Amino acid sequence: MNASILTNVVDSLPQFQGYVYPNERTLHPLWSVLIVVYPYVTGLVAGAFIMASLVRVFKVKTLEPIYRLALLTALAFMLCATLPLLCHLGHPERCFEIMMTPHFSSPMAMFGFVYAWYLMAVLLLELWFDYRRDFVEWSNTQSGLRGLIYRAFTLGVTDLSEPAVRLDARMGRIISIVGIPSAFLLHGYVGFIFGSIKANPWWGNVLMPIIFILSAVVSGMALCVFAYMFLCWARRVTADMRCLDLMTSFLFYALVIDATIEGLDWLHRLYSAEEGIDVLRFVATSKLFYTLLLGQLCLGTLVPFLLLGSMQLFRRKVGDLNRRRVYFSSAALILAGVLAMRWNVVIGGQLFSKSLRGFMSYKMEFAGSEGWLLSAGLIALPFVILTVLIKYFLAQDLPTLENVVPGAARTQEPPEAPI
Amino acid sequence: MSENVTRRGVLKTLAGIVGGIMAMPAARTCKAAVQNGLASSHAPPGYDPFQHKWLMALDVDRCIGCGMCVEACCQENSVPEGHWRTWIERYVITKPKPGSGETRGETVVDSPDGGRKGFGAELVPKEDILKSFFVPKLCNLCENSPCTQVCPVGATFEAPDGAVLVDKNYCIGCGFCVQACPYGCRFFNPETRTADKCNLCYHRITKGLKPACVEICPSQARIFGDLKNPVPDDPLQKFISSNKVEALKKFLGTGPRVAYAGLDEEVR
Lengths: 419, 268
Prior knowledge:
Largest sheet of chain A: 2 strands, antiparallel
Order of helices and strands of chain B: HEHEEEHEEHEEHHEHEE
Largest sheet of chain B: 4 strands, mixed
Number of helices of chain B: 7
Number of domains of chain A: 1
Strand order of the largest sheet of chain B: 9-1-11-10
Strand content of chain A: under 5%
Strand order of the largest sheet of chain A: 1-2
Helix content of chain A: 55-70%
Number of helices of chain A: 14
Number of strands of chain B: 11
Oligomer: heterodimer
Largest interface: A-B, 54 and 57 residues
Shape of chain A: globular
Shape of chain B: elongated
Distance between the termini of chain A: 46 Å
CATH architecture of the domain at 43-87 and 135-268 in chain B: 2-Layer Sandwich
Helix content of chain B: 25-40%
CATH topology of the domain at 43-87 and 135-268 in chain B: Alpha-Beta Plaits
């Protein structure tokens, strides 16, 4: 009864205001919530990889406890990055045409190559070089399915001599160095998919790829903080506070840079006041009030900015437990804020007509191929994969070798006391 | 594990696999280039697209908003309900408020059902209307069409004869081209699950017929012709020479070719 009343109320809300081109008068925007999930997941990959690179390339030793976790997080999300796109395609069975007969002037076609490069040549190779030595060890000590998996992952290379291990470390570092521009390229291209659409004043913007990259770095770092703290909680171990303090410092500075560039984008839009600015202003302040002003700006940016900023100033005066609480809530808020940012870009760009004379509304479905249930599933799936990856490759009961090779991170912090 | 397996060997194999995968797109691109030359586009055998250059022109002052062109297009091309390959917009510009210092008042635009059944009563009282007119819309046949630029597989392309076509057997249905068209001319066809748009009735024009909308227009507001093969007293050439013509959203650099006469600045 209540549901039917609610449905009627929702249906009676005006879906179109003003003049909207007839082809834009569709029940849902063409790119719906699945396309919101796609850049979100891809961004988390890029950000988590940058976090891992801080250890490998920039040799930030304090962050070593999260090196492998960050890489596995990047892998888990990378494996799911194209799923929302695939689910959205009219003909998913033709998806390989993007790679087989690419149209080189299309940002989407290029994304296929960047994705393949990043997954196969960067992420998997770096993980393999980092893990090979452990795989060999574990394949000798573990039996059953686990042993079989580790043995398979050694790819038959069981040489554990010192030069071989040193080569692993060197290769890992080289791939990391290549990986940083690759991560930027990966997510920059996602931004360019939107930035290249000059028909849409909300999207067609030279800063769009930059904004996407920066928000990706922020969200990926927040995810690493979130995942690390969650893992420590689940394992009943105390998180390494030095590592957390430094992670959140990087997160804070990345957030400042990201917010500055996004602010600059809006400042430029408002100051240059090109055709359509009134439409954009209306969309931002009215249609996207909750997700843009409240979600992205207040909860996703200002609150974490104040929380993390105050931790930079008063870190020594705040106890570990309270610091952890602040870090965890900041990371969660940033993750939600960046999701809101993706929503604002993707959906916001389709809430006004290209005639610049009217507005559309988006009533998201619950189930169905474009519903939020599938989207929530697609966001949850990488976490499931990550859990499996952690179980097999970051397990506490697996013996790991001490730091033989400088720069290569090894074990999680030993258990101390529950949070 | 065999001792013959070395890291160098494994890396070589991996490099071979990656190289093979990388080489495949190049091979497929060559294949696609050959296929493109033989692409099916509803054109009858013997039709040479290089020998024609089609263009549509629209006389805004002649359009009476009867909607027959829209109806003809929908029937000729089996356009799914709620989607439009061509449509008509009605513009009503009100008088400015006395003492406002403006040249015109509010602009009200509508296109009920794409104008398919014509237009009902005026949107504002007659005495408040400064001017009112109808604008037929269709694919603008852009020279630098953003829709073909962004297609990830090249399923939509500019034919040498000026038509912008979609190969529905090749389109993956990503919707990128729909987003890229600034004119709202493209739509996602729910039946074929691919992008769809006006193709100038390619199955007709390649047989020497006119597009359905041009054929049926009672007021000759739509003028269609072949720039490479002008007929004696060619209506298209006559239209271009006797009118000051304009195109839509030229500032976007898409090079729209469809020529409009009598266009008001309010039309987007």
